Amino acid sequence: MSAFVTDGPTDEKPASGGSPERVDTLPLTGERTVPGLDIENYWFRRHEVVYQRLADRCTGRDVLEAGFGEGYGADLLAGVARRVTGVDYDDSAVAHVRARYPRVEVLQGNLTDLPLPDASVDVVVNFQVIEHLWDQSQFVAECRRVLRPGGLLLMSTPNRITFTPGSDTPVNPFHTRELNAAELTELLADGGFEMERVQGVFHGPALRAMDARHGGSIIDAQIARALADAPWPDDLLADVTAVRTEDFELLESGRNNCNIDDSLDLVAIAVRP
Fold first, then answer.
1. HSE (CB half, 13 Å, CA atoms) of 199?
2. CATH classification of the domain holding 123
3. Cys-Cys with 65: which of 5, 74, 221, 247 at CB 3.0–4.6 Å?
4. At a CB cut-off of 8 Å and minimum separation 6, what does 139 contact?
5. How far is CA 96 from CA 93, 123, 263, in A?
């Protein structure tokens, strides 16, 4: 989810001949996060931290990112993986990633009918995407099909309990079905995966201090500005701009008094037998 909607700026990417080539950034619609915007920085860092913390699980491996959005995550993984293939259905996202991130092999297709052969990758990455899909079970079946035996499915998704509290109807209009930890575990187990672990994303000390400065929740403060289409107070903008990936904690369920139901996002690591 994003807290602001804009047409976004454009970046310049060096062309092979040395002259700058314009690469338009994707519009910030609320469906995906994008890098480089101060008012979007909280959501971007909250997503980026999972790529950073799990990148080592992709080292030297053939990786598929199913649903790559803006593409920054696939490019990050391309720095350690043997090969990164990205699949997305969206025309603008496909064109953008092909132009901006040449290390990523881009395919256009439906995530419930992945355009890859059986047993062709070692890792499937699916971060902040499953909640957008209507047929989640079919997508999980496709992940199992394209993974080699022993391969990993890395998945993150907003925690329904904290993201849309007290309701089964997602607050984000781009979400079809949100999940809690038990529902995510059941979905993957029913799809033939063995669960290695489920972790949660939490605010660390710096973000908890920001929560206290903004009426108890820096998330609610951002959403209130967006819904009101109102200017951002200087103190809120300064805090959002200052958020780093290090300000988030990734904690395993049941360890260090971690209650997974209190987490912001869920992170699952599952193994294809």
1. 18
2. 3.40.50.150
3. 74
4. 66, 111, 112, 126, 130, 133
5. 5, 23, 32
